[in-house]
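Entry
Fold in token form

___
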Amino acid sequence: MASKEEMLLGRLAVLHGEMTQDQLDECLSVQARTRPPVPLEDLIMERSYLTAQKMESLKELSRKDLTVKRPKQSNPNAERFGRMAIAKGWITPDQLAECLNVQRRMQEHNLYPNIGDIMVEKGLLTQEQVKELLSDQGKTLLKCPACGAKYNVSAYDPERHHLQCKVCAAPLEPARKVVVTSVDGQIDAERKGKKARQPGTTTTIGRIIREGDVVAGYRIEKQIGQGGMSRIYLAKQVALERAVAIKVLPPYLAEEAKLINRFLKEARALAKLEHPNVVQIMDLGRARNQYYMVMQFIDGETVNEIMAKRGPFEPGWAAKVMKDIASALGYAHRRDILHRDIKPGNIMVTKEGFVKLLDFGLTKNLQSTTNLTTEGMVIGTVHYMSPEQAAGERLDNRSDLYSLGTTWYEMVSGRPPFEGDNPWSILLKHRNEPAENVRSHNSKVPRKMAKIIMRLLEKDRNRRPATAEELISEIDRAGY
């Protein structure tokens, strides 16, 4: 059986894209059948999945990676829990640091989530993995049957300890299923005399929205997508029996004012846009302390998914998709709305061939002087950012057109115009390096099309098409 260190090394190799999960599973299976066990490193090297140089690099990374960047006032219990998850190869140190920061921000709003709850909600751990980690720490998971609050209890003995919920005073019982809660979940059964948190400083979050629930007349059927801070579900509007998509923010973000502002901003931006190539918003609300947005359900695949299955787009098809998205952008720009996150994952093609632009979550009003980002923060997706966006400068409609150009480039070449070892190296290339001509990656791209794509990728925004309408005219003149 692989040691914890070997599991961490293998998991890092998969996370960093050096080998696939199937390849790792194969090596682990061989190791389990071998007597005496062969080191996992040797099995990986024998199959040429990693070079010696890559192996040494990952081994060095596995040693360094256990140092977590602590947020201010980090919870030592939460950090210890996270380190155990890292040692098992289930999460990375950066993911732990992110979860610790979420926990700290929530505590500033008098919300006290367990770190395990946050990791489950973000999809990093399963409920069973949380229970296993708690068991390894000598803790038992107790749940309040009345209000659903959950507690991690140290040294718990059901024969000796009869604990009550801090919120509603109901007797606690062993949890059979983890329920997300914001109650301070650390109790030491042997230290009942410990000073309790003052009443009114905690807020319970109700049961999260999940499959099978009916929320405001919509029956949740299954999860179909997940973004950085939201989940998207397929649902059915019960009264009209029609399929819809519902984007839901998790309950632990309910008090994050900037994120809620951004979510509401997306909804209001979408509500202003009635265009055949823009997904339509149908409703907005809040249930169980979770904000949700009901949108038109699009039955299709994103450009990313299409390329993963079939490879690069045929140039003529790519041009047709780009014209439709340019039409949607032109419509939005005329209403002073920027998208700011044009990329293959935000463009969907339906089974009937219709093209839809998704996710206005990073929208910005061109006339607004308000900036929702923190100082020095860059918003967008690095492979598709304009030079001015990478520099944190003021954006305009030509910034969206640059991102459209990077998307078009990838659609016909199979790769983005700039790649690098880390996000910052890619941002610097957007700022300073000219992109290789798209034809150098796919000679089947017509010269006229390549010329349009490369014009969209000009560093100087004044050399790009001035408007989406101008871009559409160029595509028409080129015969696409």
